[in-house]
Structures are given as structure tokens and as C-alpha cells.
Amino acid sequence: MPKSNVENSFFGKAFGGAVWLLSGGITRVIIKTVVLAILARILTPADFGVLGACMTLFAFTEVFMQLGVAPALVQKENLSEQDIHTGLLITVSLSVLFAGGVFWLSPDLASFFSFPDLQAPFQVVALTFPLIALGTVSGALLQRNLKFKLIAMIEVSSYAFGYGLVSVSLALAQWGFWALIVGQVAQFVLRNFLLFVASKHSLSFHFDVDSARSLLNFGVGATLARIFNYFAANGDYLVVGRTLGVDYLGLYTRAYFLIQQPANLIGQIVNNVLFPILSVIKSDIERVIRIYQGGVFLVFLSSGLGSVLLFFSAKEIVLLLLGEQWTSLVLPFQILLIGLPFRIAYKIGNTVIKASGAVYMLALWQFCYAVLIIAGAFYGARYGLNGVAAFVTGAMILGYFLNITFVKLVFPLPLLSEALILIKVFVLASALSIFLYSLSCVIWFEQLPLVFRLAMNAIVTLLFIGVTFPFLRNIFGVSASWILDRGVGTFRAKFLKSRS
């Protein structure tokens, strides 16, 4: 098959998967927003702080429970049934071990956060570990086979009927923080059960030395990267919970939740779609660089303009979604939004590094980034929640530029073109900021209802995008042309095919 046809085939698969994950992700964000708006008016910041502590612990144990088996199953060139059975045995065995460890250490873990009532929630969450391990292997097989439609449907349904329905019902019944904990457990159980059913692989446990060696050779490096990624993603939570307390942790996690939604949405697409595709074409350096640059352009443009919209609508968003008791979140939310484009963009670099097989290099970058985040959070904690947000944002920006350096060690990136993308996006974002700031200065604007103010900001942003869109190819050059031409072409092909 000609090279161009191969490229179009790969891009078609990537785009089709991205469309399903994007549509599922947007649906999930809408459901999350509605659920949060309801729960925030019933529960307190301290209740969300308990959930934040539980999820911080879960994220840490999940790294070791998987031991990098899931990405190893996706990345392995020739996957056998023996590999699957061995991977299943490794992950389930480790999950049982860590579930017992959490039960045993739960009093000490609760004392770390200076909140003894955390002991029972920690133990309840630990009960789900074996099922999560089973779902981990199942999800990896679906990802490897590019079954993104199924993955998107499972993610949406498990959140809506697991966490959403259960948490809201129990919160209305005045269960307090237990409404959040039981809802999270319900989501875990439903999601991983559905993943296992959808993957249709046998529940068989066998250990093969060669399979284990092959999986763990990649998996150990991926685990090191995930360990450091854990501290990068949760280090600020640990610092805030330890130094400022559960109440401030509840506030900070909700502020971070608001910026996490676009970051996780795009990050899921980048990891789930690009990773298996890039793992196949990693030897074609030219195409990898082209996809990387196109992805960076798309991420910075969309998240840059989106961050500007959210920045100038922060007060309206917090009041509308969370209510008056959460107004102290506005400034930390705005500060964190400054680092949002950089936080999303480094995920593309990480995926490129991981797909190349340089997992130990990825682990080194994650270590450096974790040090930046934790150091920033510790220093910023001296100045309260706003200080943590400011220094963590600075760490995000530094981490992105460090990530570029590591990606260049794997692939010969033309750094000048990436710098030009950043500068041009900054100019466009600044222009949009002027329009939105001017709108906010109009005397009658503040007198409008919250929904109308938010809608007007969104309309101005959409008009700005509509005016600038025809000129993107001229402004951004090859990176924009390549991603736009193939994205629009593939969309038209799939749309016309579905219509016919």
C-alpha cells in the first residue's frame, strides 16, 4: 500500500477514535458538571476533601497494582493469549496484595491527613481493587483493538449510573461524605465490570516466564514513569491536605476539577488514540513529527482560546455550578487556567516518548516534573491557596518546556516551528482577552444574570474563532494545514459514508 494511503488509514483510525472519545468525553463532562452543581449545594468542602484524599490514595496504589501491564499489552507487537493470561494474573495478584495493605495501614494513612474518619473510606475503596485490576487488562485490550466507541459508552454510562445517580441520591438522603465514597465505588464496579464483558477475553490465570519478562521489561519502565506522574498529578493535593487541612483540600480539588475536565478530555484522546497508532508508525520519524506538531497546534489553539473564555467567565462558572459558599475558588481557578494549555500539551510529548519505547526517559521527565510540582506547592502553601495555585501553574509551564527537551532526545524536532506556534497562539489569545475584558467593563454587563453573562462571553469567543478560522492555514503554516486538511477530509468521508 502506498505510504500516503497508509498514513490516511492510520489518521482515519485515529480521527474516528478521537471523535468517539471526544463525544463521550463531552457527554461525561456535561454529566459531571450537572452532578457537581447538585452535590456542591448539598455537601461541604470538607466532604469533597475526604473524597480527594481517597482518590489520592487510590491513584497511588493503582500505579503499583498495574505494574505497567496495561500499556505493555497495548504496545507489544505480537500479543498472545499467554501474554493476556499472565498479565491478568500479575495485576489481580498485586491488587489483592495492595487491598490488604490499605486495610492494614488505613489508621496510619488517615493520620497523615490528620482526619481519623478517613480510615473507613480508605478500606471501602480498597475492596474494589481486584475488580479494577480485571478491568485494567480488559480496557487495554479494547484500546489495542481501537474499540473507542465501546470505551466511550462505558465511561459515560458508568459515571452517570454509578457515581452520578448513587452520589446524588445518597447526598439527598444526607449521607455526607459517604455519598461521594459509595458513588465512587459504584462507578469503579460498574466501569470495570462492563470493560470485562465488552473485551470478551477469558478469565484464565496462567503464568509464563517469557510473557512476564516481555511485559515487565516495558511495564517496569512505564511504572516508574507512572510513579513520578502520580506525584506530579497528586503532589499538590498531598501538600495542601497535609499543610492546609481537609477544608482547603476540598476547595483546591474542586478548583482543579474545573480545569481537569478539558485536560482529561484531551489527554484521554491523546493517550488512548495516538499511543496505539504511534506505537505502530514509530519508525517513520517524519510522520511522527508531523502528527506531534499538528497535535501541539491543535491543543494550544483550542485550550489557549478556551482558557481565555474560562478565565473571564470564572466568577460566573463558580457561582452557577457551585454556589456562594465556593466564591473563594475564583482566583485559584483563574490562576490555574494560565497553565492549562501547557498541562495538556505535554501529554502529547509524553505519548510520543512512550510510543517510541523510551519509557525510562519518560520516567526521568516525570520525576523532574514531580519535583517541580511538589516544590511549587510547598513554597506556595506559605501564601495560602492562591499561592499554591500560582506556583503550581509556574511548575506546569516549566514542565512543558522541559518536556520538549526530552522529546527532542527521541525525535529531531524543529523547535523553532513549535516556538512560533506558541507565539502566534499567545497573540490570538491576547486579542480575544481584549475583547472579553472590554465586554466586562461595560456598565450594564455586571447587572445581567449569570447565565446571560456566561452566554455573552461564549458568543464573543465563538465569533472570534469564526472570524480567525479561515486564516489559520496562513497564520500557522504547515502544522495547521496538515491537521486541518486530514481532519476535515476524514470527517467528510465518514459523514458522507454514514449518510449514504
Q: Secondary-structure element sequence?
A: HHHHHHHHHHHHHHHHHHH
Give average pLDDT, whole number.
80
Report the portion of residues in β strands.
under 5%
Helical fraction equals: over 70%
Largest sheet: none
Runs in which pLDDT lies below 50 for 5 or more consecutive residues are: none
What report would you give on this structure?
The protein contains 19 helices and no strands. The protein has 500 residues and is mainly α. Helix 6 packs across helix 8. The model has no long low-confidence stretch (mean pLDDT 80). The longest helix has 37 residues.
What can be said about this structure in brief?
This protein is an all-alpha fold. It has helices at 3-39, 45-66, 69-75, 81-112, 119-126, 129-144, 148-172, 177-199, 209-243, 246-281, 285-312, 314-321, 330-355, 359-380, 384-410, 415-441, 450-468, 472-476, 478-499.
Please give the structural blueprint.
Layout: H1 3-39, H2 45-66, H3 69-75, H4 81-112, H5 119-126, H6 129-144, H7 148-172, H8 177-199, H9 209-243, H10 246-281, H11 285-312, H12 314-321, H13 330-355, H14 359-380, H15 384-410, H16 415-441, H17 450-468, H18 472-476, H19 478-499
Helix pairs in contact: 1-7, 1-10, 1-19, 2-4, 2-5, 2-8, 2-9, 2-10, 3-6, 3-9, 4-5, 4-6, 4-9, 6-8, 7-8, 9-10, 9-14, 10-11, 10-13, 11-13, 11-16, 11-19, 12-17, 13-15, 14-15, 16-17
